[in-house]
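Q: A small favour: would you put together sequence and structure tokens for a protein?
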Amino acid sequence: MKHRLALVGGGLLLTLPVYLALANFQPLEDLFLYHDAWTVFKPLFLAGNAIGIHDDGAIVETTMFVVSFLIALAIVALLACGITRARRERNNA
């Protein structure tokens, strides 16, 4: 239980830096500015009854925060696995 709580806590701590990295990622910004990336979010806009650009922006921001949390959680889980593996190898040597 403590291990899972530590993973989620680490994921929450890294969510904002990952979100800022995604928000400043130029290819992602270009995708929204110069291509039709908004069509990917159309089902979410319809499900959320989005009216106007402010509701659309809120849905995109929420989606980015969820994706940022999942990426941060994956980073923390990979680091935890690496640390556990290193400890096992050190103890077995």
